[in-house]
Amino acid sequence: MDLQGLRVLLVDDDPGGLDAAVQALQQKGIQVDRATSAGEALLTTVAIVPDLVLVDIDLGGSDGLALVKRLRALPPTQGGRLPAITVNDKPLTGRRLERWRRARCQGHLTKPVDPVELMALVEGLAGRDVDRRRPIAGVAPRAARKPTYFRERRKSRQTETGT
């Protein structure tokens, strides 16, 4: 897939934290814009409307998942439906995994970011318009891919609602 001209917004409070990711993206002809805070990311998103956003979950003083939720609240013409990939130094589990799902992210990578995994996600999400109401199948983080988890979750919900 030709990714030339694609525009990615990278949000990380550590300016050098995702240099390997930036390098991998730029080698494919992708334009990378950077933001170091949630506020700056919102302003940049509205101004340039990137094709995809790559967000560190642990932004200094704010939360990357909260940022993605705020992006989802924007109108589609201002970036409300752009795909979001999160980055963190540990895998998503438990409560954080649930928050990740509610934020409607499309992918997750652990630091240090593997350029091959990053490019696979970017290629899979390039040009997609995210429907804010429905989950996208097949791009959940590894911890969420176990089929038994979904069956157990569905059973517990049915028990809670009595259906």
Textual characterization of the structure:
This protein is of the alpha/beta class and 163 residues long. It has one domain: Response regulator (Rossmann fold, 3-Layer(aba) Sandwich). Helix content is 39%, strand content 17%. It is built from 6 helices and 7 strands. The strands form 2 sheets. It has a 5-stranded parallel beta sheet with strand order 2-1-3-6-7, with helices on both faces. Strands 4-5 form a two-stranded antiparallel sheet. Strand 6 (84-88), helix 4 (94-102) and strand 7 (107-110) form a beta-alpha-beta unit. Helix 1 crosses helix 5 (115-125) and helix 2 runs parallel beside helix 3. The longest helix has 15 residues, at 147-161. The protein is globular and about 55 Å long. The N and C termini lie far apart (45 Å).
Helices and strands: which structural class? Answer: alpha/beta
- The level of helicity is 25-40%
| Largest sheet, spatial ordering of strands | 2-1-3-6-7
CATH architecture: 3-Layer(aba) Sandwich
Query: Which geometry do the CA atoms define?
Result: globular
Task: Report the sheet with the most strands, covering strand number, pairing sense and barrel closure.
Answer: 5 strands, parallel
CATH fourth-tier homologous superfamily: Response regulator
Task: Give the CATH class.
Answer: Alpha Beta
Distance between the termini: 45 Å
Number of helices: 6
Global Rg: 16 Å
Order of helices and strands: EHEHEEEHEHEHH
DSSP E strands, number: 7
Percentage of residues in strands: 15-25%
Mean pLDDT: 82
Total domain count: 1
Unreliable parts: 132-151
Oligomer kind: single chain
- What is CATH's topology name? Rossmann fold
